[in-house]
Design goal:
Its cofactor is Mg(2+). It is found in: Cytoplasm. Pathway: Carbohydrate biosynthesis. It is built from eight helices and 17 strands. The protein is an alpha+beta fold and about 325 residues long. It has two domains: about 180 residues, Fructose-1,6-Bisphosphatase, subunit A, domain 1 (Fructose-1,6-Bisphosphatase, Chain A, domain 1, 2-Layer Sandwich), CATH 3.30.540; about 130 residues, D-Maltodextrin-Binding Protein, domain 2 (3-Layer(aba) Sandwich), CATH 3.40.190. An eight-stranded mixed β-sheet has the order 4-3-5-6-7-8-9-10, sandwiched between helices. A five-stranded mixed β-sheet has the order 12-11-13-17-15, sandwiched between helices. α1 packs antiparallel against α2. It starts with a helix and ends with a helix. The chain binds 6-O-phosphono-beta-D-fructofuranose and manganese (II) ion. The site of 6-O-phosphono-beta-D-fructofuranose has 11 residues, from α6.
Length: about 325
């Protein structure tokens, strides 16, 4: 089986990008260890702090953020980073051709129930000159690489450098990532959806109508039965979509009028959208293609509908697209 380093060597990447992806992969091995030790390492529970978005930080949010930050600072190819757990962008130095955005531990509320969590990352080109938040505000289409690491029964890395999506599994014996699924393709059609149904009354009419028609099953306008799944960690739900298709959405809602969207554009929606498009799927807000959005802030949130291409198209029809 091909190792990650063999894959990176033959993928015709710049040596700098290959080195950065190796740094991210190596850091994820350390995170995987920390996650796996759990209570034995005293890493569960809350840190007693809040992130810039007012969410309570878990100890592991802080620990994994620091692990990635330290690894990227030592890498030498990264000028600055933006993280879910950092209020502002962190400038690492005046050298390096990349900017990295990451969610160090996605789905961290799952940590205390020993369920799926992951790391999501997005690599953008660094513009020349001084780096500020403005430097990060590039459409997701500019990403030179994106991926996630899922800390599940096995630790898996999903990676795209804009030439398809590859899935690697961490071999616990050799400590190497091995290529286990080459050229992932999301089936165009599906009979599975993922949404937090408890927010139903807060959705727009378009989403209300779409889901109502799905759950009517064979007797409804779709003429087939749909199954539902919700892992409450975007990495877990997107991994299922990459593995067997499906539609995942965290739509607009009015639950908290100050917060109409939940998922963050720069380090959740964009990297997942690139993976999904590269695997033949689609990713939209309901109105706009995620990867074409011009970001205005590093922590901005966005509605997300992604997955099997034909099913996303059906959902977009309900949105008048
Ligand atoms: O990062 C935000 C997140 O944890 C996603 O990973 C996940 O899809 C979603 O929020 C879960 O939301 P909820 O708590 O509404 O189920
Ligand atoms: Mn997250």
């Amino acid at each position: 089986m091909q190792t990650l380093s063999q894959y990176l060597n033959q993928a015709q990447l710049s040596p700098a990008l290959a080195a950065l992806l190796t740094t991210l992969a190596n850091s994820s091995k350390d995170i995987s260890q920390a996650v796996r030790k759990g209570a034995l390492a005293g890493v569960l529970g809350v840190a007693g702090t809040e992130n810039v978005q007012g969410e309570s930080q878990k100890k592991l949010d802080v620990i994994t953020n620091d692990m990635l930050k330290d690894a990227l600072a030592a890498d030498g190819h990264v000028r600055a980073l933006a993280s879910e757990e950092e209020d502002e962008v962190v400038v690492l130095g005046d050298k390096g051709e990349f900017l990295v955005c990451f969610d160090p531990l996605d789905g961290s509320s799952n940590i205390d129930i020993n369920s799926l969590v992951g790391t999501i990352f997005s690599v953008l080109p660094a513009p020349v000159g001084e780096i500020s938040e403005q430097s990060f505000l590039q459409p997701g289409r500019n990403q030179v690489a994106a991926g996630y690491v899922l800390y599940g029964p096995s630790t898996m890395l999903a990676l795209t450098t804009g030439k398809g999506v590859q899935l690697f599994t961490l071999d616990p014996v050799s400590g190497e990532y091995l290529l286990t699924v080459a050229e992932v393709q999301i089936p165009k059609d599906t009979a599975e959806f993922a949404i937090n149904m408890s927010n139903q009354r807060f959705w727009e009419a378009a989403m209300q109508n779409y889901i109502a028609d799905l759950i009517q099953g064979k007797a409804g306008p779709r003429g087939k039965s749909f199954n539902m799944r919700w892992i409450a960690a975007m990495v877990g739900d997107v991994h299922r979509v990459l593995s067997r298709g499906g539609l995942f959405t965290y739509p607009t809602d009015t639950k908290d009028p100050k917060k109409p969207f939940k998922l963050r554009l720069m380090y959740e929606a964009n990297p997942m959208a690139l993976l999904v498009e590269q695997a033949g799927g689609k990713a939209s807000t309901g109105y706009d293609t995620i990867l074409d959005i011009q970001p205005e802030q590093i922590h901005q949130r966005v509605a997300v509908i992604l997955g099997s291409a034909n099913e996303v198209d059906v959902c977009l029809e309900y949105h008048g697209r």
